[in-house]
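User: Can you fold this complex?
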Amino acid sequence: MSQITLTGVGKSFGAVQVLRNIDLDIKDGEFAVFVGPSGCGKSTLLRLIAGLDTPTLGDIRIDNADVTRTPAADRGLAMVFQSYALYPHMSVKQNLAFGLENSRMPKAEIEERITEAARMLEIGPYLDRRPGQLSGGQRQRVAIGRAIVRNPVAFLLDEPLSNLDAELRVSMRAELAALHKRLKTTMIYVTHDQIEAMTLADRIVVLRDGRIEQVGAPLELYNKPANRFVAGFIGAPNMNFLPAKVEEPGGEGFFADVLGESRQAVRANAAAVRADQPITLGIRPQHLRLARENEDGVEVEVNLVEALGSETVVHTTAGNGDPVLAVLQGQRPFNAGDRITLGLDPENLHAFDETGLRLQGN
Amino acid sequence: MSAISDIGDKTGAALAASVKWAAGIIDPPLRWLQKKAGFNGMAAFFLAPNMLIFGIFILVPMVINFAYSMTGGGALFLPDRVFVGGDQYGRLLTCSDYSRPITCTEDQFWIAVRNTAIFVVVQVGLMIVLALTTALVLNKSLRARSFWRAVFFFPVLLSPVVVGLIWRWILQRQGLLNYILFQFGIEPTVWLTDRFWAFVAAVGVSIWAHMGFYALILLAGLQAIPKDLYEAAEMDGTRPARVFWRITLPLLGPNLLVVLVLALIRAVQIFDEVFVLTGGGPGTSTLFITQYIYEIGFASVLRNPGLAAAASILMGAVLVVLTLIQLGVGRRKDPKEAAK
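Assistant: Here's the predicted assembly.
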């Protein structure tokens, strides 16, 4: 059992409010990922859970026990730092043993735990080396190993893959997912990389300016973003946004006038909008296609074409000057300056009101 | 604002133009030189000014000093002096019982050596402990940290003579310290004319004068230790004492070595502040090796520059050996070196 509950948590550094009113419930065994742009407060939130910082407001509970003022060491958590934080003057084995020695654990048990972690992470051959003699990936494994040997109630991982190269990051990501499956321990993972968030998380917590924007399963966030920020942050490449205006609402949605040049059906709660209301329509680049003959689409001008073989990434500009990115299947022989018409399907359209909130039922 | 940025832009442009102009002038001859001298030759060319200054002010005087140590008599100029080979070294090193300076031909030299050895061990040991403690305290987020850093560093800026004078005024029989003690009803002590207290004063004053510099080096070392390591230790539930012995101290090793080497060299060379403070007395209780060299070479009635030169060569040799030993030990223990 290791459920982590945050209630009304806030954190200020002097006059700067870094986190505001965070309510969050991380379930036992869950892989939760905190994601958001730089400075959104995700690492601070992790540090509050770890006990390395104290919240200004609210309380933190682990398995229903209030740990808000409990020292980090007594929370039963283990943390993997972005920089690995391995002691450079100690061997890998000494690094793994250091925390266990603090709790005066018998030597035989320490040895047993180290052997098990080394086997699990395949770091056995490096136990006598120092961190400086290891590659980035090996250091990362040692850092994870140091967390594993403590047998924590939950793992806290602060951007653990950000110092690795792209290829290693992909393989370590898979290893982390496998490790979570094997250990079945609660993991809280901080990243600014939404691909890491999408691939690893059971649930993603999207943060912006110290507030939670949305919490949900990766595909829930992808398919039903709660607001324009989440829609733009989750998914790669970023979602396109087009200004539009509600025409007469009714039935299962409404028609929207896009850029004053195209009339599109939008599935949304018609009661939530009024005629002539300015809205924003969002569509992912992968959901754009070339319009069929006589179809009412959005005309754009091609700026740049990236032919990737199986698909073509087309950078374009809409009539109002906004950039529109389209990822079209197959190979498309476009040139810069070409004018093309992109078709929009109602099921792939996301509608947001003037404040950026998702229009229900969409 | 725009007027200011205008001035800034114009100043920047003028500076850039003048640098470009200067570079344009020196570029052709340097290109020609590089063609003639090659890449390594250019390195030697750029090193030459420094090597010249080093040669004139350090290397040549060392050679001359060595030459003096091979000569005898009271004449000041080398050509007027008599070559005596290693006689001066022999005179310095001749003792019937090395544990009793009185049995040595140059008993003052051996007294100075003994005093210097005790001074080095006590002063360097105490100063490193105090400098480390100061650095650890100044590294904490205490109120007015910059002020306290300045307070501890301030004595380093003082001339040694000023340091000596300040402390003489404090410690002399009718000085400030005795006045304060008297106000509290404590019997005044003759700090500078008592053999034990004079030595203690010499150690204390030199620590006061130099500790700030070493504390600053250690503070820089402490700040270079990543905070993450301490946070990892905190997550591991490491007690503060264990954090100090197992994390801080090993990672501060290279800085401690630098401090040890510098403090040791300085302690062996101790002279000016103690000379002003006690004049080497009472008796020979605070006579250190540099003062001995100075007095035998320049200040005594029967001055002997050859003997002084030989003593300084011996002191230099001891310093070189000690430094090499320290660096050798340090290289074996440096975690960064070991990690390679």
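Chain B has two domains: 2-69, 106-339. Chain B touches chain A at residues 226, 228-229, 231-239, 242, 246-247, 250-251, 253, 335-336, 338-340 (CB under 8 Å).
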